[in-house]
Write a structure and sequence with these properties.
The structure holds two protein chains of two kinds. By secondary structure, chain A is of the alpha+beta class. Chain A has three helices and twelve strands; from the N terminus they run ααββββββββββββα. Chain B has a single domain (about 1-165), classed as Arp2/3 complex 21 kDa subunit ARPC3 (Orthogonal Bundle). Chain B is built from eight helices and no strands. Chain B has helices at about 1-15, 15-30, 40-55, 65-75, 85-95, 100, 105-135, 140-165. The longest helix of chain B has 27 residues, at about 105-135. The chains are: A alpha+beta, B mainly alpha.
């Protein structure tokens, strides 16, 4: 009231104008958001490229912030260990006794395997190269199960590479920046991994469904699967090396087998990225002289003959 | 002259407080704590932040800030691009539009307002995510995260209320 008539008449004109501008801005932003959604569907690769660039910008912040978190986790783990030392010692003694027997068996098998290989001269699987990385972001949301790693193209990371922990396969690399990469977990809706049931050698595709237990699909109709059976990567498609432990069959409901992955997601901290080629480097070397860089990717794109431990 | 320039700079910094705090909350939620599902807090914290500032200091949380915050969540989570951006703009629009009803009354009213607006956000989220993935996305995690967000609202709101003096001059 006290502000006088001039100001109020001004605000009478300005207020609706500002309101309109605000509404227009709101509409514009909504349009951009919807456009992004549509582009994400139709031009997935371009949007992914933009996302990689944005993640690259944020990754250093996450890397710095995550360091103390990791340290705190280590401290807590150490305290836990301290409390459990007695019990753990007992458990480890038992485990050592059990594994000592296995060692003898393994040595015998190794000898036998070596002599049989010498007789047969089969093609060997190439040894994978390793890249170690730290998890700097736990980015699993409602729709995508993923994590951010602090290794990127600079370190030799490429799209599609398998990511493992000491326990088993965690997933694969789906986006790579210069210094960071996104790991798509086994459990994600879009994760597909060719696997083999270890004992029966039946092949299947392990398909994530955003639940903690991905399911086996494309399993042969006559295949029998029992709970407790180990599931490993089959090495088909040449992306993952064969024989990586994936998980165990946890339950079978309505003829659909669900897998409990070996990886404990809560412990995902350091991971190993495998630079694997389905064709041994020396074979490529024989055909194409002078290729020394193992990152050269001509081998995996369908031109490679299927080799390895197939039966 | 100098003091007015300093004032302007101080105002600029103050205006950036809400969006900065919100972004830090989102980043902090995505650190690898080794706790199951801890990262699900990120979109929830973004939602609470946008709602809170839109109700209590709408001029410091304009639609553009809500959009950027949503984009940050989208980029980091690797989910459908623009989805959280869209949801947070709508939350801003709804919360700022109803601020006369929501602000200044009892805390329970603003909490109830959050419950309703966040429920709407969850429905929109589910609808567009399902459309994007062309399959009906499992709705249980969304309902659970909405429930946890509503339960956590008082705590986060209290924290943001403590931060509010930072946005006011001297």
């Amino acid at each position: 009231m006290a502000k006088g008539p001039r100001l109020s008449s001004l605000s009478r004109v300005a207020a609706p104008a500002r309101g309109m501008a605000q509404r227009f801005g709101l509409l514009l932003l909504m349009t951009i958001a919807v456009a992004l959604l549509i582009l994400g569907k139709t031009h997935g690769d371009a949007i992914r490229q933009l996302r990689v660039m944005a993640v690259e910008a944020v990754a250093p912040v996450l890397e710095v912030l995550s360091a103390p978190v990791i340290s705190a986790r280590h401290a807590i783990a150490e305290i836990e260990q301290f409390w459990n030392t007695g019990r753990e010692n007992q458990a480890l003694r038992e485990k050592v006794a059990r594994l000592a027997k296995w060692q003898t068996i393994a040595r015998n098998l190794e000898q036998e395997n070596a002599s049989l290989r010498a007789l047969l001269k089969p093609a060997r699987d190439p040894a994978p190269h390793f890249i170690s990385a730290r998890v700097i972001g736990d980015t699993s949301g409602l729709f995508v199960q993923s994590a951010l790693l602090n290794a990127g193209r600079r370190d030799g990371v490429e799209r599609g590479q398998a990511v493992t922990t000491g326990q088993g396969l965690a997933g694969r690399v789906v986006e790579v920046g210069q210094h960071s990469a996104r790991l798509l977990l086994l459990t994600d809706l879009n994760s597909r991994v060719p696997v083999t049931i270890e004992h029966s050698r039946h092949r299947a595709i392990l398909a994530g469904d955003n639940s903690a237990r991905p399911r086996l699909t494309f399993l042969a109709a006559n295949a029998k699967v029992n709970p407790g059976e180990r599931v490993v990567t089959s090495g088909h498609a040449g992306v993952f090396p064969p024989g990586l432990p994936v998980g165990i069959v946890s339950s079978i409901t309505d003829g659909e087998a669900h897998i409990q992955p070996y990886v404990e997601w809560a412990r995902l901290e350091y991971v190993t990225i495998l630079r694997y080629r389905a064709v041994p480097m020396r074979d490529i070397g024989l055909r194409r002289e002078g290729i020394a860089d193992p990152a050269d990717s001509t081998a995996i794109d369908g031109t490679a003959p299927v080799i390895g431990t197939d039966r | 002259m100098e003091s007015s320039l300093a004032n302007k700079a101080a105002n600029f910094v103050r205006a950036g407080v809400p969006i900065s705090i919100s972004a830090i909350l989102v980043l902090a939620a995505m650190l690898p704590y080794g706790l199951p599902k801890s990262s699900l807090a990120a979109p929830v914290l973004a939602l609470i932040s946008v709602y809170y500032w839109s109700v209590f200091r709408p001029e410091l949380m304009p639609a553009g800030a809500a959009f950027l915050l949503g984009l940050l969540v989208d980029v980091l989570s690797g989910g459908p691009p623009g989805l959280n951006a869209l949801v947070l703009i709508l939350v801003h629009w709804a919360a700022a539009g109803q601020r006369r009803t929501l602000a200044g009354k009892s805390f329970a009213v603003s909490w109830l307002g959050y419950l309703l607006i966040a429920a709407g956000a969850a429905v929109i989220n589910w609808f567009f995510a399902s459309l994007f993935h062309t399959t009906a996305i499992e709705s249980v995690p969304l309902v659970v995260s909405h429930a946890i967000g509503t339960a956590a609202y008082p705590l986060v709101a209290l924290f943001l209320a403590r931060m509010q003096p930072l946005t006011q001059p001297g």
